Predict the structure.
Amino acid sequence: MRAYVAGRLATALLVILGVSVVSFFLTFLTGDPAEIMLPPGATATQIEKFRAEWGFDDPLPVQYWRFLKRAVHGDFGISLRHGQSSLPLIVARLPATLQLTVTAMLLAIALAVPLGVLAATHRGGPIDLLAMGVALVGQSVPNFWLAIMMILLFAVSWGLLPTSGRGGVAHVVMPAAAIAINLMALLTRLVRSTMIEMLSEDYVRTARAKGLRELFVTSRHALPNAMIPLVTVVGLQFGYILGGAVVIETIFTWPGVGLFTIQAILNRDYPVVQASVFILATAVVLINLTVDLLYVWLDPRIRLT
Amino acid sequence: MIRLARRSPLASAGALIVGLVIVAALAAPLLATTDPIDQDLTVALKPPFWLGDGSLRHPLGTDHLGRDVYSRLIYGAQISLTISVLAAFLGAVVGVAAGLVAGYLGGRVDTIIMRLADLNLAFPLILLALAVVALLGANLKNLIIVMAITTWMIYARVVRGLSLGLREREFVQAARALGAHDARIIGRHVLPNVLAPVMVIWTLEVARIILMESALSFLGLGVPPPTPTWGRMLAEGRDYLTVASWIAVFPGLAILFTVLGINFLGDGLRDLLDPRLRRQT
Amino acid sequence: MNQRTMTRRDALRVLGLTAAAAGLHTGTPAAAAPTGEVKIGLAAEPNTFDPHLTVGRNTQIFVVNVYDGLTARDVQSNLVPALAESWKRLNATTWQFTLRKGVKFHNGDDFSADSVKFTLDRATNPETKATVSSELSTIAGTEIVDPFTVNVITKTPDFLLPVRLGELYGLMLSPKHTSAVGKEAIATKPNGTGPFKLVTWAKNEKLVLEANETYWRGAPKVKTIIVRPILEDAARIAALQTGEVDLIAPVPHVRIAELQRNDKLVIKTIPAPRIFHVTIDVRKPPFDNLKVRQALNYAVDVNAILKTLYFGHGTRLATVVDKGALGYDSNVQPYPYDPNKAKALLAEAGHPNGFEIEFDSFTGSIADHSKPAEAIVGYLQKVGIRAKLNVFEFSTFGPRRVQNRTAPLFIYSIGNAYLEPSWVIRWMTQGGLGMHYKNAKLDELLTRIEATDDPKKRAPQYSEVQKLIKDEAPFVFLYQADAAFGMSTRVDYTPRPDETQWLYPLGLKG
């Protein structure tokens, strides 16, 4: 087990490095920041002079090496746009993004599991139809459209919730709901589908034949196995959620990593992009590792191999 | 065929809806009333025919450049469907294959494939889309590739998870004992068991890709104008939600309708394909 | 108090001294101490408060609330004294500025000639890597004559220097403080002479300004201003409607009519000096033929574009000189919309069946260029010019421009922050960045204008320039769009015509 974890950590580092290199090159290959940083009246010669001053005209591998040398000391460079050290800028935004995404994920799971289980155990009945209906609508709604509709309804028309910005429960409800809705739908369907599989498994039928109560059967035998793909998918979705959070963060001006990163990408603020990509890659890799370990723990058959 | 249809009303309903959309997509030149990119600023932002000063000439209204929403919707079916179905399919084929190989063979192969998935997953989609568009040009083919790249990992992970467990199952071990090749085992025994969840995921992925396309259009990185895709129409209509909501509402409904149909179809197919259920009935 | 300020304002208006009064006296306290709090929602927040590292007009127009330059603009856009009481040209390459006495930075440091020399040296020092260095590149050096007089020497005659050293790129720093705290600190903890101090700044969340009670123009009326960046248009407008904020900028044109119907809100618009145009590569056939270029201008119904995409909130421009600029001549009429004439001209030029061409546009910059580009391409296609529209993301478009790899037609806009047509036209005739039009007669006219120091004498000379440019049609002339500000009736604010978000005159009603 320990060897497994160590090996995974080693390859995780490789992944993070890989993402870093690719991001750096892509940021520059698609246009360096010089033109956007200068005032509009700058002439071509002035742009070239500026580029030389900042070292943007050095060959890319040279620039990357310069960056890497500092990065290993934790210094991702000064943000081109904000004039402050990049990594602390990103890290300062992590709590906001975590607050939003974790709330959204918990919301989604809390709704999806009971809904999915109910649908599976009452398969074919009205509850199933209702659950599936909710799930289907949930996954089909474009979340940015939903977000704007919610603002118009709850904030402007009814004055119940604030229109934007970060804060406590009142502020987080709408953005978290907007993010959660697609995930909730996905999870509900997955839980339902895998529960149906499990409920028709031989060992479950055996248990039922032995006369054990339905609920007992469900929770002791079917549910844990149904959790396996659920855990996998939730972990996997974390990457997607961070991506989806970008749009929602923009709409609500939620001061999170997503919003900051996408502005940095569009501004070619490469120190910030690098810092952000590093944090994101680390997070996703760690989550995947956790999921894999949880997976092993949940399914004893794997552990035995 | 009729027997199958009766067996699953869900699949039939889904097939019907999807069929309608496909027909609309294929017959776009016949069904549309105008050229979808023909603009006429004098009739910009006209409402659908049942509101205000709308007319049957533009039954679902016009957008900010005076283009007919109905015609753009029909042509949009063609393009949005093409992108999402192709991208989801491509992603599924690559992902399922990768997952099967990783899960069944385990060891080094498993590690490499899963780390590649990690790298891909950890990589910001925006940057990837931006880079592909900037370096290779903004066209349909490249966008399909970008979307496929964002979707294969989910199949790979889930399928790997399911096939990791399956390798240890009695019937597989029995088959191996009988001398069956890995490929055959995967094809005959492992694949059918992963098909059901994969199908569920696939239908959801098509939906997600349709929505992702609109998110990219929102950021200006999607299919370039004036090509009408539902996602682009949704993004364009966003600025006019309070004065001309029809520009965004109809593509939104189109997406909903289509996705619903795909899901009905997926669910119905899953019910039909599930061997256990077949045995029960 | 209300009574008193009303009377004072009336009196000043009558005497026409509203602007001049701002520059007259040092250290006069306001009629009453600043009170109250105003909340503002903006689409973007400044990237930094280091005046030498600002990126983008959005930052420039905001940091002027914390700093002052040597000159400023009044509400009629006249250039007026600020930290410099007067200035004159000693010779072709030297300007002398006489500085205001008794001005202090927020931390108590004194403003003097040292401040000016330090600031300008820092801006032009390659080590600073200042983003404003391009606009101050004419400066050769600064000489201190006495503690309140400086000479700024330029490499070539620069008639715009007083404007450059004003609110645009001449915001003054304190030498002692800046050297002590270092570059990174100045970005978030500025120390200027301006009407407001920056108290706190949580990026993407909020920014708090507090009145500088010893401001040399007199303390501002409002004590605290809280600025929130609200990127999404719908959310920003919603915040104004619910009263979460009192003032927002910008208001998208599509929402103006609806908000004007709300009697709790006031919408004010100004013709922002951003000149939209389509650059034509006059070197590449068929655009080397004047008839073709004119045909392009006749082909596009610019008024229809203004009406539908901007809901009428814009001004048709006959040339590339904007309405608020010095010497704008409204007698130069724009090309009328005449698609038949366009087709006729094309036929005369040897293209009766039109031709194919590429047209570049982009997304993601400060203003929307892709919608007007789509509209323009639509019009061109109707007269047979089969333009293929390429849309790039803004930062990807940049390198194409710099490397002169753009399509022969591309849409662009330039903000004439100098309010001086010569500046824009020189930029457009630089022979790089995709702009290759040159005209010797035009150069001659501009050189003569630039040698004229008195703005009143420069203005009429621009008429000939505008006629020449219109006739030559090196661009497809478009428009300038209005900038709209939305505010609640609680607030008294008149936006400045050059878009500067000058919050000093902001007041509360009642």
